[in-house]
Amino acid sequence: MEKFEVSILGCGCALPTIRHFGASQVVNIHEKLLMVDCAEATQLQLRRNHLKFNALGHIFITHLHGDHFFGVIGMISTMALLGRTNTLYVWGPEGIEQALQPQIDIFCQGLTYKVEIHELNANRHEKIFEDRSLEVYTIPLRHRIPCCGYLFKEKPRLPHILRDMIDAYQIPISQINNIKSGMDYTCPDGTVIPHTRLTTPADPPRSFAYCSDTIYKPDITQYLQDVDLLYHEATFTDDEEKEANRFYHSTASQAAAIARDCHARQLCIGHFSSRYNDESLFLQQAQAIFPNTVLAQENLTIQL
Amino acid sequence: MEKFEVSILGCGCALPTIRHFGASQVVNIHEKLLMVDCAEATQLQLRRNHLKFNALGHIFITHLHGDHFFGVIGMISTMALLGRTNTLYVWGPEGIEQALQPQIDIFCQGLTYKVEIHELNANRHEKIFEDRSLEVYTIPLRHRIPCCGYLFKEKPRLPHILRDMIDAYQIPISQINNIKSGMDYTCPDGTVIPHTRLTTPADPPRSFAYCSDTIYKPDITQYLQDVDLLYHEATFTDDEEKEANRFYHSTASQAAAIARDCHARQLCIGHFSSRYNDESLFLQQAQAIFPNTVLAQENLTIQL
């Protein structure tokens, strides 16, 4: 099956700790890499995860807090040193251009490639990008400043060809794509073989949603129905719900409630506050509501 | 003896590697911390070295290349989260204000403390700061953009008091500082005890110079005479001297020649290009010219 996996480069919160890097993940869809959030030191983590800088086409920023953004300029700078030529797309809420473009102008003179910055309306759920295999949507979140999550949806794929049947009917290779696309095959003697006899149904398209940072916001479940993997922030354990509300963050149980209510297949929680020295309580609290939960951790890759 | 030590947080070059962090060092003089250069991820390294963010009073930036500067905004941001109140002084060549202030304005609204940015003339050797125990001077270097090194000089210290003599003459505690400062002591019976009989000479003041990034520039030795510890960049091994010249960097032997010619007590070399997988050749080449050389490495602390 074609690759769809999520690598966690960092799952810490604003304050640096010895245990966690700042927020960043890389989504690999069919060998195309997309980054979500880019804290300071993300480029070091990219190296450690043996991910190729220049296979990365897009950086999606959720909001303009440093622990989700300060790594972008270093990434852009390093990509230039590595001789990048293909355009890099950087997406984020309003203000991202003003935050980034002057830094590029000062530190990346004579850039070898183009950086296209796209400002988004963080209050809307809308499709912001698509290509042959993928669609990306915004998810309106609620934090202290404008903030949106992202939903990555694989496009419907083609059915699997049945090799044995192709061989049996001696169907030429040139017809394979037509059959996959739903055309029946007509043999030289005029017999028509329905395409459904030559294929098995496509794998269902997969999806990944990234929701961080946000206060508990149950209405986002409408955008997340049946998502295969939900990454949802859980900055605090349940006993700190007041603190969570105050800083527009979520608790472990709230993250799990979102996963349950949108019928996610799997939940991954992260963005742990630096006050915690281990995260077992987060896991326990989330699993009580949504059993198929894992804790985010650096260098963890989840296959979809 | 009062503390004077240098901790290396990162000694890599522009491209991130798994082996090295970007350039940054912390100088501890009498428990005051001063930072020189501040690459991305410096704040993580500060944590790992158990150095206190808010004991740091100054950040000295040599030049406005990202691998010496991109960590500053994260440091400022984290210091605010930690509730800093005392002023932070950031020093660097012309342009540093324009590079930093807009970032502070966007990401650090309602900062709990003051950030004072001082632009320096990187072509001059001059005293830019002093306090009770320390003087800081610029060292004009030559790189692709304006760049200066820094010389940290301890001020002359007071002589050591001889406890036995104080006891023998029953000299009151209130007189100790006067005696240290050079006053003789007059006993109740009128006998005068010269201060030199009551003290041993002060330890000689110590100094540390940081020279990175620069092409081989022999004239800087006039500012570095008898320095206790010289940190000098050695981006390339000797066989890459052409490459070093082309990018305005130095080789291992060139760094060692500077140390030899300024009669440094010890040399530390760093800023190794990412093309090298180990640095033993650097050490060999430098030690052939200046035996008391060490290789920089992350988390190394050198006592002066």
Topology of this protein?
The structure is a homodimer of 304-residue chains.
Chain A: E1 4-10, E2 24-29, E3 32-38, H1 42-48, E4 56-60, H2 66-69, H3 72-81, E5 88-93, H4 96-107, E6 115-120, E7 127-130, E8 134-140, E9 148-154, E10 160-161, H5 163-168, H6 176-180, E11 185-186, E12 192-193, H7 195-198, E13 199-200, E14 207-211, E15 229-233, H8 241-246, H9 252-261, E16 266-270, H10 280-289, E17 293-295, E18 301-303
Parallel strand pairs in A: 3-4, 4-5, 5-6, 14-15, 15-16, 16-17
Antiparallel strand pairs in A: 1-2, 1-18, 2-3, 7-8, 8-9, 9-14, 10-13, 11-12
Describe what you observe in this structure.
- Two copies of one chain form a homodimer.
- With 304 residues, the first copy, chain A, is an alpha/beta fold.
- Chain A has helices spanning 42-48, 66-69, 72-81, 96-107, 163-168, 176-180, 195-198, 241-246, 252-261, 280-289, and strands at residues 4-10, 24-29, 32-38, 56-60, 88-93, 115-120, 127-130, 134-140, 148-154, 160-161, 185-186, 192-193, 199-200, 207-211, 229-233, 266-270, 293-295, 301-303.
- Chain A folds into two domains: 4-157 and 203-303, Metallo-beta-lactamase, Chain A; 160-200, no CATH class.
- Chain A is built from ten helices and 18 strands.
- In chain A, the strands form four sheets. The first copy, chain A, has a seven-stranded mixed sheet with strand order 6-5-4-3-2-1-18. Chain A has a seven-stranded mixed sheet with strand order 7-8-9-14-15-16-17, with helices on one face.
- In chain A, a hairpin with a 5-residue loop joins β11 and β12 (192-193).
- In chain A, α3 (72-81) packs parallel to α4 and α9 (252-261) runs parallel beside α10 (280-289).
- Chains A and B meet through α1, α3 and α4 of A and α1, α3 and α4 of B.
